[in-house]
Amino acid sequence: MKIIEELESTKMAWVLSYVQGGRTCNKYIQEFKKIIRESGYKRQSLIEEFERGLSKRIRRKLAEAESLSLYNRGVTGKSSKVG
What we know:
Elements: H1 2-16, H2 25-39, H3 46-53, H4 56-76
């Protein structure tokens, strides 16, 4: 059982340590998918892990878009696309 726990821990560390760095978003997406497949990582929080690895600039833009979307829903009562 300890070997399985260590293996799971290693898989998680591999995924958690992966960041975008200087890669383009497309390259980061491709490599993240490959790492997930190869690692057998099976957590529900893959989107969170993916977003955590994005560059700070892109994470900030996502947060701004999400805040604007939540604001628009509150003001209009409707969901709107941010483009």
